[in-house]
Amino acid sequence: xxxxxxxxxxxxxxSVEKIKSVAKRVINEKEKGNDVxxxxxxxxxxxxxxxxxxxxxxxxxxxxxMDVLLSTGEQxxxxxxxxxxxxxxxDAISFTGFQAGIKTDGVHTKNKIVDIEIExxxxxxxxxxxxxxxxxxxxxxxxxxxxLGRGGSDTTAVAIAAKLGCECNIYTDVDGIYSVDPRVxxxxxxxxxxxxxxxxAMSSLGAGVMETRAVEIGYKYNVPIYVASSSEYITGTYxxxxxxxxxxxxxxxxxxxxxxxxxxIGKVLLNSNNIARIIxxxxxENVNIDMISQSSPQNGYVNLSFTVCKxxxxxVCKVIDEIKLEIEEMIIDIKSNLSxxxxxxxxxxxxxxxxxxxxxxxxxxxxxxxxxxxxEISVSYTLDDKxxxxxxxxxxxxxxx
Length: 401
Ligand code: ASP
Ligand code: MG
What we know:
The chain is α/β, with parallel strands linked by helices. It has a domain at 3-173: Carbamate kinase. It has helices spanning 16-31, 46-57, 63-87, 119-126, 153-164, 196-204, 212-221, 272-284, 313-326, 353-364, 385-398; strands at 3-8, 35-40, 92-95, 102-105, 112-116, 130-134, 137-139, 145-147, 167-172, 193-194, 225-229, 237-239, 253-269, 292-294, 301-309, 331-344, 369-375, 378-384. The strands form four sheets. An eight-stranded mixed beta sheet has the order 3-6-2-1-9-11-12-10, with helices on both faces. Helix 5 runs parallel beside helix 7 (212-221). It is globular, with a radius of gyration of 23 Å. It starts with a strand and ends with a helix. Residues 9-10, 41-42, 47, 73, 135-136, 150-153 line the site of aspartic acid.
């Protein structure tokens, strides 16, 4: 028998009705003759609710307690889904992360999966049972309950599929992966296939459909990941290594990240120690610096600009306040209402004229960007929110996305 891992996200499980309909879809897969493992998220916005609940108790909760709390969301889902499947006359069994043997390591609320004792799941599959596993959680070597970071259920699903050597189907509230977020560009096309590397770039640059870590595991263990709608039976998108068609497009998609801030630290006396101090302190606070640029020195001073995501803004302010005491003349400017627009495609690697085309498109549309960066397979621009739609549409038209 072939095994298959299905994953259902929170919005697909948001009500009793939805859970019942997921149960039918699971059974449908089982009826095809497959061994089925189902990984679930917490119902609807349960995790947000739990986070807020903890804040009502204290703003200083310890992360171990946080994990004990947050893991309960998925525990509700596994029990209810298993009940729904059993009620339809099929045999299901529910497992929390630790019951399923998901071993993790790291700091609480941000654990990583290190291994899965997959034998137990395999045994129950052999007995013909549908195995329902709580996503987003595991157990560390101290025996504590852990969670994998927000959105972590995708990772659980792909990791189980890697262990079983099978395909992973992610069922969600969108019906596949589009070249561009259709909410920004309604003409965007649904992709039939996308390579792991391109999907990793798209996710890490802001496309919210899949968790980046999950795709990285897929890449490492060669797990085909299929992303499709949880409510309709229409063809979705495969994330996998695939045979490129002869005329395959060089540019695959555009990722958009609205969640960024640009920090400019002006009037920094140019000496490498000053710059090193700033970057070092940001690193110590775990701030993820994205695009970074330094102006050429004028009268011995430089400006340093970088972008960060919203979540890191508090830490950035903390570091700036500290550094101000050391480098007094510094001027700080924080810009919000920015977007990062990234053009992604594996083919870019050996077609340098593509990058020129992008700059031409932005210029022809009078779009100013504040910064840009390139990687082997992407080019990213920071621009004003108000220019986002025009820029995206112009780029999408140019590259036929
Ligand atoms: N329930 C968790 C969250 O909301 C994990 C997930 O949905 O993947 O972040
Ligand atoms: Mg998700």
